[in-house]
Design goal:
transferase; 9 helices; two-stranded antiparallel ribbon; isoprene biosynthesis; 11 strands; disordered N terminus; acyltransferase; Thiolase-like; 3-oxoacyl-[acyl-carrier-protein] synthase activity; alpha/beta; single chain; Peroxisomal Thiolase, Chain A, domain 1
Length: about 350
Amino acid sequence: MADSEGSVTTVGLTGYDYYVPETVVTGEEIAEASGIPEEVVVEKMGLVEKRVCPPDEDHATDMCLEAAEGAIAEADIEPTAIDLVLYHGSEFKDHIVWSAAANIADRLGATNAYATESYTLCAGAPVAFRQVTSQLRTGDIETALLVSASREEDLVDYANEDSSFMFNFGSGASAAVLEREPERDRARARVRGSDAITDGSFSEDVVMPAGGSVAPPSHETVDANAHTLDVPDPDGMKERLAEVSLDNYLAVAEGALESSGYETDDIDFVAVTHMKRSFHELLLDRLGVDPGTDGYYLDEYGHVQSVDQILALDEGHERGRVEPGDVVLFLAAGTGYTWAATVLEWLG
């Protein structure tokens, strides 16, 4: 939305943080549990280690609260200044048919905020930034807190080779504070344009067979081990996805850059969903950036759903790969299948 002089309303990222649990599972341990050679897990899948949650600790809301407190402190605001709490993490959370966002808002003391949830699975971060930035630009809200968490590692069956591409699932949470027209010295980044594509023909390729209305929980579904993630047709999915995934990643990246007034040559850093190592390198190469210096490969975290972008951004920043004036691309894809991108201008 433009102001009275015709310029676009600035939306700033004023604080962010993340949380990962202490328990570590190594690529070697995953190889032992799955029967897949360690070299394949570590090198091809790109998983040196990942963090996982103990059964009775680090629920989605607990992890979000840890990350949110850090983000709010960095933004130097009080919880009561927040107008919106948006949870864009995993649907696998503390309880089913339940608002994690409301619980997080209450525990934070965000008493003036309304709380809601948005699900785009692993493409959630760019989409959430897009949604909330639009609200901020219209003046609907002034300050928003975006929170995400995943512990879908709990739903992975290492004995199910069909779901092996999900063996990289790790646990953790992220939080980001977005504000309308913050003072420049308070903003770490300016949120720019976004783009997204969905190909719904993949909507039934990754499912947890039981637990929903199609197959409610029962003794039979538990005995059949139907409460873990499965891929009904792994070869078919892989073949169809290979035909479109790279092109769709590039399309949303180019769309987000164009709407921000940039071109692919302007990209300085890419914070992208964790994927197998060879595809990560191919994608960044096709975007015209160096995978070794202009991105961060999350082989020590694995894939933490829509937390990946904040993890990669922070690791890149800590290593001096993100500097003031840099164009940062949040790039993601999630089963369903949705590809999404949002551009940030890093201010430092």
